[in-house]
């Protein structure tokens, strides 16, 4: 996906390292580069190659922020201890991200299996 495109998703895909944070409900949002639209209110969860029996219910979408506009509050709901660690992690997944790049914040609730 290029930065300006809109991506339609049919599941929420995470790196395996976030599994425990989601299951403990300490990660209730995810920041994605560009405009990301779920195709349903409830989405399957996938961690690496492993689908979970639980689903995520999409609670809210925020298209208003650029990478530089992200806040400490955004970092906390995304399961990070600080804005600095969130930004560093995003740069691992999106090495070419710039301060002006638009982001989508997907807020979700873990549903029971």
UniProtKB/TrEMBL annotation:
Protein name in UniProt: ASCH domain-containing protein
Domain ASCH, first and last residues per copy: 12-112
Coiled coil: none
SMART domains to which the protein is assigned, alphabetical: ASCH
Superkingdom per UniProt: Bacteria
Record Pfam families: ASCH
